[in-house]
Amino acid sequence: MRRKFLRLAMAATLTLSGQVPLATPARAYQVDCAILLCLAGGWPTSAPCAHARAVFIRRITPWPIEPPLQIWRCPMGASFSPVEVPGPVDRLFDAAFQANLPRQSVPEDAPVVEVQATDGADIDISGDAFDFVRSIRVYHIQYRQHENRDGDCSRSDSTRLGSYGVQGDYRWTPSSKAQVPPASQLRIPNGCNDYFYRSVFVDWRDHAGNYGSEEVRY
């Protein structure tokens, strides 16, 4: 199953980039289906994957801070021929190229979205083939320290963690600087020197288990 998924992810990437003929226009692909496929394949080099990654990062760039992958926007439960019952990977592959479905995008004047999302995938993704979805973590880091007038060290840590549930639902929970991965540029000095750090940090593992991360300071 894992090898099949990776093969399909790479095939989808090549198809989206125009290197493999398609029955439907490449422009019709769903951006969240593309994010799903490109993330699984380790963000292969292609124009569609570059766009998908840009959307992935843009969503965590304040404001608002959105779920970087919005799997509920990828219609994996799309209709298929009744001759063969498709598996979840086949649904995902097909959904990425549905010409009759509108592209998902975030307009410039879009209203602020809720930071939590109870929606999830429209099929069962609880199997380990989709563990890479649940590997995505978003840290909204807000840390400050300084020495007050009494000589005491004042520290403030409002760090939160955005994570995905079994079905791709998204939620925020309290976290702390101690939970922030080492790949972040957060570097708290010794003692109580004045220090302020604020960013959104996202990390993940692709389908093969390779680690990746991005951070946006603001």
Structure, described:
- There is one protein chain.
- The protein is α+β, with helices and mostly antiparallel strands and 218 residues long.
- It has 5 helices and 6 strands.
- The chain has helices at 2-16, 31-40, 47-58, 88-95, 131-134, and strands at residues 137-147, 153-157, 160-164, 170-174, 195-205, 211-217.
- Strands 1, 2, 3, 4, 5 and 6 form a 6-stranded antiparallel sheet that branches.
- A hairpin with a 5-residue loop joins β1 (137-147) and β2.
- α1 packs across α2 (31-40).
- It is elongated, with a radius of gyration of 20 Å.
- The termini are far apart.
- The relative contact order is 0.17.
Give a short overview.
The chain is of the alpha+beta class and 218 residues long. It is 22% helix and 20% strand. The protein has helices at residues 2-16, 31-40, 47-58, 88-95, 131-134; strands spanning 137-147, 153-157, 160-164, 170-174, 195-205, 211-217.
